[in-house]
Amino acid sequence: MKVLEIYNILDSISPFIMQAEWDNSGLNIGNMQIECKQVYIALELDMQVVNAIENGSLLIVHHPLIFKALKTIQTDTYPANLIEICLQKRISVIAMHTNFDKTHLNKAFATKLCLESLNFTPNGEKDFSLIYSTSTPLSTYSLATHIKNILGLDTLRYTQKDNMIHNLYITCGSNATAYKIANKRDCIITGDIKYHDAMIAASEGISFIDVPHFESECIFSDLLAKALQKHHIQAIITNSHNPFCYI
After folding, report:
1. Do the annotations mark residue 213 as ligand-binding?
2. Dihedral of the alpha carbons of 22, 25, 26, 27, in degrees to the nearest 10
3. Is residue 220 part of a domain?
4. Residue 62 counted as an annotated binding residue
5. 167: in domain
6. Distance of alpha carbon 183 from its chain centroid, rounded?
7. 204 assigned to a ligand binding site
8. What is d(CA 93, CA 15) in angstroms, rounded to the nearest whole number?
9. Is 146 annotated in some ligand binding site?
């Protein structure tokens, strides 16, 4: 099957036009017209993943390898070191990032958090965040404790522990700027929260729960593999590893 045929199937599953304007979902490396021997899926393209993939294959990842324009291709630095290997092995790379967040991953992440058990129910979406609301407010501390236990985390950062939460803004990965669309007594569940964003949100009575980036998106490969099976494409999941260690 040609890369273009699989690209079109991916576009039907999660249209690339839905990606954020700053994103680079779509074909990152390769040629739409070449035949691919096998289809692989991984959260990230890293050295371990690229070395495990068969020559002449297609790799579908969540995070684009190339975000910004490259002024030089220096092959002992990232991302050129990975691009070089992909070209040598004739590996094509397609990214399914914020478009897949919007159509699949945010919903799957919210489902994983079992929010209905806390009387939070879906209440639409705004930008790239899902909104959940409740008529029985819950403290940030209680909500954070629930999420920590559901995800099996040893630690979990959060702010404004005594806030009584009415609405949740949920985005897998990283979307700390969601505080700009939230209101007092709302809580943002996302990752990679910076100190100063937390300070600004706290001054406006908005809570954060900082779910680690990897833990909120590690379900990507399974989700996409199941979607591709409906189109009779059997993809091989190549596990990406969390770059962080904890003590």
Report:
1. yes
2. 90
3. no
4. yes
5. yes
6. 24
7. no
8. 17
9. no
- Token reading at 167: 């609405």
d(CA 208, CA 189) in angstroms, rounded, equals 6
Question: Is residue 217 annotated as involved in ligand binding?
Answer: yes
Are 122 and 156 found together in one domain? yes
Domain count, the chain: 2
**CATH number of 1's domain:** 3.40.1390.30
Whether residue 112 sits in one domain with residue 16: no
- Bridge partners of residue 129, in order along the sequence: 126
pLDDT in tens, the chain (247 residues): 999 999 999 999 999 999 999 999 999 999 999 999 999 999 999 999 999 999 999 999 999 999 888 889 999 999 999 999 999 999 999 999 999 999 999 999 999 999 999 999 999 999 899 999 999 999 999 999 999 999 999 999 999 888 999 999 999 999 999 999 999 999 999 999 999 999 999 999 999 999 999 999 999 999 999 999 999 999 999 988 889 988 8
pTM: 0.94
In the block, residue with structure tokens 């324009």: 69
